[in-house]
Amino acid sequence: MEQENHGYTNSGDMNVAIVGNYIPRECGIATFTSDVATWVSRTLGAGSDVFVVAMNDRREGYDYPPMVRFEILANFPRDYHRAADFVNLSKVDLICLQHEFGIFGGPRGIYITDLLRDLKKPVVTTAHTVLPDPEPERREALVEVAELSDAIVVMSRKSVEFLDTYYGINPEKVHLIHHGVPDMPFIDSNDYKTRWGLDGRTVLLTFGLLSERKGIEYMIEAMPEIIERFPDVVYVVLGATHPPVKEREGEKYRFFLKRRARELGVEDNVLFYDRFVALEELTDFLASCDVYVTPYLEKDQIVSGTLAYAVGLGKPIVSTSYYYAEELLSGGRGVLVDFRDPDALSRGVTGLLSDPERMRKMREDAYAFGRRMIWKEVAKDYVRLFRKVLAGREMVPAPTVQRHPVSIRDLPRPKLDYLMRLTDSTGVIRGAHFDIPDKSSGYSTDDNAMALAAAVLCRLQTDDPMGLELARTCIGFLRFMQLPDGRFHNFMSYDHSFADEVGGEDCQGRTLSALGLTVALEQNEGIASFAKAMFDDALGGLELSYPRAMAYAVCGCYHYLTRFQGASLVSAFLERVAVSLMKDYECGSGPGWHWFEDSLYYANGLLPRALLLSYRALKEECYREIGLESLEFLTDNCYSGGVFDLIGDQGWYPRGGERARFEQLPIEAASLAEAYIDAYVIERDERYLELARAAFEWFLGRNVVEAPLYDFASGGCADGILAHGVDQDRSASATIHYLLALLRMATALHLERADSGRAL
Length: 760
Description:
- This protein is α/β, with parallel strands linked by helices.
- Helices cover 47% and strands 12% of the residues.
- It contains 26 helices and 23 strands.
- It has an 8-stranded parallel beta sheet with strand order 1-8-7-6-5-2-3-4, with helices on both faces. Strands 11-10-9-12-13-14 form a 6-stranded parallel beta sheet, with helices on both faces.
- Helix 6 (216-229) links the parallel strand 9 and strand 10 (233-238).
- Helix 16 (445-461) runs parallel beside helix 18 (505-521).
- The radius of gyration is 30 Å and the shape is elongated.
- The two termini are 38 Å apart.
């Protein structure tokens, strides 16, 4: 680890692109990125060019200033490649990435690695969150970002220690640069109170985007004792509710805090300023406070911009003892108290207010320390590091970045428009005449289950609101179709009358597969919990004997276990079904016929895929061996000359018999693409990626009739390949399987890169 202090020179032009959130987006990263860009630009001078690539969390973006020249929609993978192309063609010398897991798309923000891999210039990454003992997904995501960066900036010594201990990142690559703070004079708080109507009051202040992690309730519970000794005290809670929290929960936490203040009789001494404040307004608020308080709840908080600001302005501080507070307030620059302890907070505040000399000394010490943290100095540290990195690149060229033969940028954009055209308030309509919904076909659990899976995966790839709408519709339909014993009807007429007593085994397994995937990957807590409840009900007492039904169930159990690894009933069911599949293989296979049955039917890739996922879940080599062996048998019988000639449903392919060539179905191509992706995740053999690409491109015209089934204009997919050409009807099932092949390929490429243990 190095703290930047070598000689600074302002000579020489440098062009820098900074990637991160940006104002007017309301979050701490946006403010930080704005300050870094502004001060680095000032430090470099007029001969240099500094601009921002801004991360968007909504499709309409924000009204950015001219500093922002490119925007990335966080959940749209192709934007990361386009941003890299833009930067590479912009005469940029260096990229400075602001890394926070939640601002990028994909599991643990893994999409940002696509941009880093495509960049041709050095990267300096500021790591805003470095957790001790991280979960594997988070660890691997940050490790990959570090590997693709030339230097890592952190804002605390504890972060340096954690990167070494928990992430295995060489300390020589890590550089400590303080969180920047405004440059304010050492002032008397009373000079700033008039603006806020706080004359004659002793002001306690907590600032930041409001969420339950802030621990504000404990400070409110400390107020009665504080007021008893200092009746003029007022506690100001400054800041809007954190936008994702507000979207998810509304103002629940703020109303809880106000109610708690009323219950304790301190509502006149607790003031809420519910807005996101600009820098000038914030500094005036901070200047007016007598004691700054951070009652945060999490020990692992490794940096706090608001705490840094308070130190920089020379404020007496009372804080819970999270890591950053322990470091920044050492040497008497603040008072540390235990977590969730109102009495300790009260003692900390009253101890300061009753000792003016101690407060004065604390203010002076904090302000003196904060002078090294003002943005003017911090920007110099960044520029010194930039020049050092550039000098190092001149001496040692950048290593070659390995790229997969299949990239996200090679895949079409997911499009739900056509599937939504087939969906009404009840669910997805099964059939279509050409591209017109055929309401007489009714609805099926099969289609709605798989549409749910497609919607969940789509929400990992894009921010298309249709994904959430479709997921809600489909999971509601599945609940309606579920019987008291946990099994599902499969067919329902358009008039909402059931067309069966209970669905077949394939229906039960397929639905379990979709629900398990939803449990594992859905970000909406309501949908995920609904899926879990239905999955648990469906699994209880379920008996399956048909290979594809069992294979679907394995997939669902595997996904479920990636989120709830200790779910013993699910694990036992997966193992039992995997053993049954192995027995089917032993009975069905023989010389020259490495298969589970006496015929190749439909969705054949599903069977080897189930064994490969069983291997990943159970770590038993036999599943891997048979999974790969049966997949090779499929490949030998379906792939030739770079094209998949799939098993047709007009007679299938019986052992020793003639192989049917038509009708070739989308479900077959989709099942093969998924199986090859899983084989690649296990074997890291790029041949499997090439085969996955070929199976997916069957939809796009890489097939025996050399005609596309997928219509890019509408987003619909033809029902199959007939002897005379492509079927003109575009049912829900065909379109869903196109989407599943596309989305699972894209998602799996990202997840396997993060080594998350989830192969889709």
